[in-house]
Structure formats: structure tokens, C-alpha cells
Design a protein that fits this description.
- Among the domains are: about 100 residues, no CATH class; about 220 residues, Leucine-rich Repeat Variant (Alpha Horseshoe).
- The chain has a two-stranded antiparallel sheet with strand order 1-2.
- The protein has 38 helices and two strands.
- The relative contact order is 0.03.
- By secondary structure, the chain is an all-alpha fold.
- Keywords: Membrane, Protein transport, Transport.
Length: about 775
């Protein structure tokens, strides 16, 4: 047993807060680290907690519940120990009064300890939180503070005496973030953020604090009223303030996008200063890249407004159309420069920063879609083509993922196809995450022209693929084969290959979809081809169970189409299926029982073969198999041959849903915003053509059925016309009996039926 206890952060050791008590606290930490078992550590923690509790409760207790006899040294030492014990995961349910006393202190060393403990030990819903709100508000809003509250950091940055206290209070509010605290103090936080007297450090912390509060209560800030204040903050020359403000702005704009659209020119101006003019303080240069984190936040904000270019270029708002054109021109220059000047660097850190900015710029181009400049899309595609062939796996991963997004744009398909060979190489990469992104890109770039090659490559690679990615590959191959199949026979062959190579990863929705497509397309010889192909596929004894299920369903529905061919008779179909009976599970056997019933109905020679199976299965432990066997066996004895024929006729076409089960499964696994899901939900030209053919066939069938029904009605009306004369001239009593014949269930029978129905429902 090795116990690794965390070290106390160095930020805790400030201005002598631990210099005098280091011995006691450090000895306690050393004891915990040297513990040889969990039991020994628990014993040491319990002993220390008992000692601290005794120190807090012995002596004179003040009105606020704290021990006034404790010195500042002792109170800070014991509270630090409670904080450390809490960090280790132990429950600390006392000492809050001492924490609150430290927070109310005017000394920075005590206030620092108090706010750290307050942030960790208290939660927003704690009852005593109301007693500390006024103290936090005082620290936030006090115009000045005693010199003892000053910290070295605030003095060096030129902050006032209240800088340190405000910073501690803001950090604590953000960490606790309870509803009561939010409602009580959010106005003060906003006031500090927009106040001109606040220092840069305080404005940074207040922006991040307000972001935390807004995430907890989205309607806390009114966008239209607050947008001008954000605009004022975006004109600050301090890059730290700008970075924090952009974090806040992104959080606000995600929730209320339209209310912050007026800030786009400010964002573009800052981006232009960083990218075009390299205007950046030296401390914010990261490997000669001006504040890459701020650039990323600016680009992310612009991605929230994909139609900004289209909407603003055609509008004249109060004579500001020239300004609009200016910032749009500046924005395109910025994005163009990011695309052209970003390259792979020898320094990993610089390369990572530059490429983070680059990929956000490409995401912005993707968001613009067709409204963006064509040259930018072409430049992005060319650049990404270079990145997906580099050796660095991180850059290759991001390149593949971003190219998949770019490939969704109209007119980008041909540019993506040029890199098909490179993407196929990435499909064999050692890193599984890179293989997944390569698979996604192949899925997105697939169309009618290259579908057969891509699907064949994926099927060939499936043999060597890891088990971790096989299920995903099978699902996407099945969707592509259905989506772009010019001949549905190729689709059936592809699914059978998937079953033979990786049958364990072919889920039920995939083979269900095969059955639906074969059933819904009676045109041509698809149904006969499927029956003949499955007869060959199911012939070997070592055949995957999924293939047996598909073959069983197809034989029962369309086996008669090939029964006249040599070696494909009904008896042969039964023999091929029944050889797998003992190796199948209950679900497959239930399908086989239904197929046997249909084969026995179609072929006289199959009835002696099927009857013993039904007899044995009447006593099956599986209720489904038992019920099916008993009903099918009794059906021929209980009903006329015509009724049996009607009951066992082939299934009608399945209802075509807007989304197939495979598309829904893909959306469930990858989310609605995934490039592959967007691709899968768009119907291909082949799918539209098949849907149109099915609609025409269905309409013709309906017209034929309506014509037949009308002819039958004419015959019935003619028969009734012939009988009208004799009835009218006959006995009026007979006529009355004919016209008032009872329809439905007689009223006197209904109570007995209700009782019988109740008995059926409740008795065993």
C-alpha cells in the first residue's frame, strides 16, 4: 500500500501565513505521507480532527460561535489542517465559525486563509451562507481598505488597498456559486467589472466570476443592456482583460446570440491588431505568436454568426455600410493570413499554438459555408491536405476531423476526393483515434462515383481492423452501401460480406434493414437474387447466425421465386435452414419456426418434415417458441385451407420512415452535430430515385385496387337491383326483417362477455 498525499499548493504560502506554523502542519502532512496503510492514515486523521475540535470548543466562545481565546497563529494552522483533510476526501463538518472569523478579518494573511477554506468547505446551499454575504459584499464594494489587506501582488500591479480583498471575494463567489449568493451579489460583480476604478486584475477576475454565475443562472444578464458595457471592455488595452472578457462574451453569446451581434466589429478589430499588425505586449507573446488563446476566443465568437457576411454586405444601417464593408474586408484578410502563414514548426509548443488558431480559422470558414469567399475554402482544403500527410499524429488527427467538416460544403467534394489515397493510408494508422477520423472522412467524401471503391476498401480493411473500431466500421459501411447503391444486388452482397467477415458486430438494425429493402423493392429480380444468394451463403454448416436469420426470413417470404431452380426446392431450403437449428439461440429459432410454417404451407413435401419439429417444440422451455409451434400446428386443423393461405401469405411492404434505424443509431453514437450524421441524413440521388420509383409503383397498385373495388361494388349493386322488385312486391314482414337485421353484439350478451374477459385476464 503506497499513499501519495497531495502537497499543499505554494499559493497557500503567502506573506508568512505558514512560516510560523509550518512545523505543525508539515509534520501532519509528513505523518499522512508516511502512513503504511489506509487504516493508519484514517487513525491519524481522526486523531487530528478530535484535537482540532477540542481546540475550537474549549475556552471562551464568542457570539459568532468562534473561540476568541485562539491566537491568529493557531486559528490559521487548524483551518489549514481542515482544508488539507478535506482535500484528501475526508468529511469536515465543523470549524465553519472559525473560517467565517478569518474571512471577516482585516489582515490579508487571515483573510486569505479564510477565503480559501470558505471556497472549499462551504456550498451555496449551506444555512450559514447568509451570514457571510454581507462580509463578501463589504470586501467587494469597499472604496478603500486598511493597509494590512494589501498583498505584494496588488502593490506591484498598482492596485489599491481593496484589490486583494476584491480578488479573494470574487474567487470565492465563483467557486461557491450558490443560488442565494448569485441573487445577492451578481449586481456588485457586474458593477466591479464595468467600473473604471477597478484595476486590470480585478476586472479579469470579475469577468470570469460573472461567467461562472451566468452558467448557473443563464438569465442573470440582460443582453441588450449589457452589450454596450462589453463593447467598452473590448476597447481595453490590457490583453489579460480582453481574454477574460472574451471568455465571458462567448458564454453570454452562446445563450443569446442575436443580442451580441453588434460586437462583431470590435472583435474583428482586435483580431486584426493581433494577426495583421502583431500588436501585442511582450509578456503575451507565446513563441512569437501574439496571444494565441485570445485569437482562438475571438474566432470562436465569430463562428456563432455564420451569416454575418451575407446579412451585413447587403444592408445599410444608418450610413454605416462602408464601416461594415471595412471590417468584412479586414476579417477576410485576417483569415487569409492565418491560412497562408501557418506552417509546421520545429518547436512543438509553437506548432501547437499556431495550429490551434489555424483550425479555428478553418472552422470559421466551414461556418460561413457557401457565403464565404471561394478562395478561402480552396486554400483551407489545400492546407488540410498537407496536414493529413504529416507524421505528427495530433496535427493529422485535427486535419482529418476539420477536412470532414469542410467536405460538407457545396463544391468541396472534388477537392476532398484528391486526398482519398492519403486518407486510406491513415485508415491503417497505429493510433485508433486517427483511424476513426479517417473513417469519418471517407464516409463524408463518399458519393455515387467513388462509393464502390471506398466500400470495397473498407470491407477489405475490416478483416484486419481492431475489435474496438469494427462495430463503427460495419455500421458506416452498411449506411454507405444502402445510400449509394446503383444496384441493390451489390448492397445485398456487401451486407453478406460484412456478416461473413465480422458477423458479431452486425447489429440487428443492419440485417433488419436488408429485409426491409428486399421486401420493399419487388421490381426487377432483387427478391429472387437475395433468396438465391442467401441459399448459397447459408449452405455451409459453419455459418454465422445472423446470416441464418436473414436467410430464414427471405426464404419464408421469397423462397418460392427460386424453388423451381435446381437444388433450390422447398425441401432443400428447409434442409439448409434446419442444419443450423441446434447451434442457434432462441431468437433465431423463433424466426425459423415461422419460416417452417410458411414452407409447409407452400410446399406439400415439407409438411412431413415440419410436423415433427412443431411437435417437439410444443414443450419448449422458451415461451415464444412454444407458442408459435402450438399455434402453427393447430392452424391447419382449426381453419380452412383458404384461411391458412391468407394467414401465411407474404408480408406487405414496410413503412418507409424519414430516418432509417441505422441513421438513428449513428446519431445516438456520435451526436447530431457530427459530420457523419449530417452526411447520413441527407438523401442521396440514388435514394431519391428509388423513393420515386416506389411511389409510382404504390400509386399504380392503389389505382388498380380502387378499380377492382369499384368493379366489385358495381356487381353488388347489380345483384341488389335484381332483388329489389320481388322484395317490394312480397311480404312486408319479410321486408321489415331484412331491413332491421341486428348488427354487432346483442346487449344481453355484453355482461357475460365482460365477465369472461375478466376471467381470461386474471386467472392462470
Amino acid at each position: 500500500y503506497v499513499k501519495i498525499a497531495p502537497s499543499l499548493p505554494t499559493s497557500f504560502i503567502r506573506e508568512g501565513t505558514m512560516s510560523s506554523q509550518a512545523k505543525g502542519l508539515h509534520n501532519f502532512i509528513s505523518d499522512l505521507r508516511n502512513a503504511k496503510s489506509k487504516e493508519e492514515e484514517n487513525e491519524r486523521v481522526d486523531k487530528e480532527l478530535a484535537n482540532i475540535r477540542r481546540k475550537f470548543t474549549s475556552g471562551s466562545i464568542g457570539a459568532d460561535g468562534s473561540n476568541s481565546s485562539l491566537s491568529s497563529y493557531q486559528r490559521k494552522k487548524y483551518v489549514w489542517k481542515l482544508v488539507y483533510i478535506h482535500v484528501l476526501g475526508y468529511e469536515v463538518d465543523f470549524g465553519h465559525a472559525e473560517v467565517l472569523r478569518l474571512v471577516r478579518s482585516n489582515k490579508y494573511s487571515e483573510k486569505n486563509v479564510g477565503y480559501v477554506a470558505l471556497s472549499l468547505l462551504l456550498r451555496g446551499g449551506d444555512p450559514m451562507m447568509s451570514s457571510i454575504v454581507n462580509t463578501i459584499r463589504k470586501d467587494l464594494t469597499a472604496a478603500g481598505a486598511p493597509s494590512s489587506v494589501k498583498s505584494s501582488s496588488s502593490s506591484q500591479s498598482g492596485g489599491g488597498g481593496n484589490d486583494a480583498a476584491q480578488s479573494l471575494a470574487l474567487c470565492s463567489i465563483a467557486n461557491i456559486s450558490g443560488l442565494e449568493l448569485i441573487q445577492a451579489l451578481h449586481v456588485e460583480v457586474q458593477h466591479i467589472l464595468v467600473s473604471k476604478s477597478s484595476t486590470a486584475n480585478v476586472r479579469k477576475k470579475s469577468a470570469l466570476c460573472l461567467l461562472r454565475l451566468v452558467r448557473s443562472s443563464p438569465d442573470l444578464v440582460a443582453g441588450r443592456e449589457f452589450a454596450p458595457h462589453i463593447a467598452q471592455l473590448l476597447q481595453d488595452r490590457h490583453l489579460g482583460v480582453l481574454t477574460s472578457t472574451m471568455s465571458l462574451l462567448n458564454g453570454l453569446a452562446v445563450q443569446h446570440t442575436s443580442e451580441y451581434e453588434s460586437l462583431i466589429p470590435y472583435v474583428v478589430h482586435i483580431l486584426g491588431m493581433l494577426v495583421l499588425k502583431k500588436a501585442c505586449a511582450r509578456e503575451y507573446l507565446y513563441y512569437r505568436t501574439p496571444s494565441p488563446w485570445l485569437q482562438i476566443k475571438l474566432l470562436k465568437f465569430l463562428q456563432l454568426y455564420p451569416n454575418a457576411l451575407v446579412e451585413n454586405t447587403g444592408k445599410k444601417k444608418n450610413g454605416n455600410n462602408s464601416n461594415t464593408k471595412t471590417y468584412i474586408s479586414q476579417l477576410t484578410q485576417v483569415v487569409s493570413k492565418i491560412l497562408t502563414e501557418t506552417d509546421v514548426s520545429d518547436s512543438i509548443n509553437k506548432s501547437n499554438a499556431d495550429h490551434a488558431v489555424l483550425f479555428e480559422a478553418v472552422n470559421l470558414i466551414v461556418c460561413w459555408g457557401e457565403s464565404g469567399p471561394v478562395q478561402l475554402r480552396d486554400g483551407a482544403m489545400k492546407l488540410l491536405g498537407k496536414f493529413i500527410s504529416v507524421r505528427e499524429p495530433n496535427i493529422r488527427y485535427l486535419g482529418l476531423m476539420t477536412m470532414a467538416k469542410l467536405a460538407q460544403l457545396e463544391g468541396s467534394a472534388e477537392g476532398v476526393k484528391k486526398h482519398q489515397a492519403t486518407v486510406l493510408v491513415s485508415l491503417k494508422d497505429a493510433d485508433i483515434s486517427v483511424r476513426r477520423r479517417a473513417l469519418d472522412l471517407l464516409f463524408v467524401m463518399c458519393d455515387t462515383d467513388n462509393s464502390e471503391r471506398i466500400v470495397d476498401e473498407l470491407v477489405a480493411h475490416l478483416v484486419l481492423a481492431d475489435a474496438a473500431i469494427r462495430e463503427e466500421m460495419v455500421l458506416k459501411i452498411a449506411i454507405l452501401a444502402e445510400k449509394y447503391a446503383t444496384d441493390l444486388r451489390w448492397y445485398v452482397d456487401t451486407i453478406l460480406k460484412l456478416i461473413s467477415i465480422s458477423g458479431d458486430h452486425v447489429s440487428d438494425p443492419i440485417w433488419h434493414r436488408v429485409v426491409q429493402i428486399v421486401t420493399n423493392h419487388p421490381q426487377g429480380d432483387l427478391q429472387a437474387y437475395a433468396a438465391a444468394t442467401l441459399l448459397v451463403a447459408a449452405s455451409p454448416r459453419r455459418c454465422h447466425e445472423t446470416a441464418v436469420r436473414v436467410a430464414a426470413y427471405v426464404f419464408g417470404e421469397f423462397g418460392f421465386l427460386v424453388a423451381e431452380r435446381p437444388g433450390m426446392s422447398g425441401e432443400e431450403q428447409f434442409r439448409i435452414l434446419h442444419q443450423h437449428w441446434h447451434n442457434c439461440n432462441a431468437q433465431t429459432r423463433a424466426i425459423l419456426v415461422s419460416t417452417y410454417a410458411k414452407l409447409a404451407n407452400l410446399y406439400e413435401e415439407c409438411r412431413p418434415l415440419v410436423a415433427p419439429v412443431f411437435t417437439r417444440c410444443k414443450n419448449s422451455v422458451d415461451v415464444e417458441i412454444q407458442q408459435r409451434s402450438a399455434e402453427y400446428a393447430a392452424m391447419r386443423e382449426s381453419f380452412s385451407p383458404e384461411a391458412v393461405e391468407d394467414l401465411l401469405r407474404e408480408m406487405p411492404p414496410f413503412e418507409e420512415r424519414r430516418q432509417s434505424a441505422l441513421e438513428l443509431r449513428l446519431k445516438e453514437k456520435e451526436g447530431e452535430d457530427s459530420a457523419t450524421v449530417v452526411k447520413a441524413t441527407r438523401p442521396s440521388a440514388e435514394q431519391q430515385k428509388r423513393a420515386a420509383m416506389n411511389a409510382v409503383a404504390q400509386r399504380a397498385a392503389e389505382e388498380e385496387s380502387a378499380a377492382a373495388e369499384a368493379a366489385d361494388n358495381d356487381v353488388i349493386e347489380g345483384d341488389e337491383g335484381e332483388q329489389d322488385g320481388p322484395v317490394e312486391n312480397g311480404d312486408p314482414k319479410t321486408s321489415a326483417l331484412v331491413s332491421t337485421a341486428p348488427v354487432g353484439i346483442p346487449k344481453e350478451v355484453i355482461p357475460a362477455m365482460r365477465k369472461a374477459f375478466s376471467n381470461l385476464c386474471t386467472s392462470p
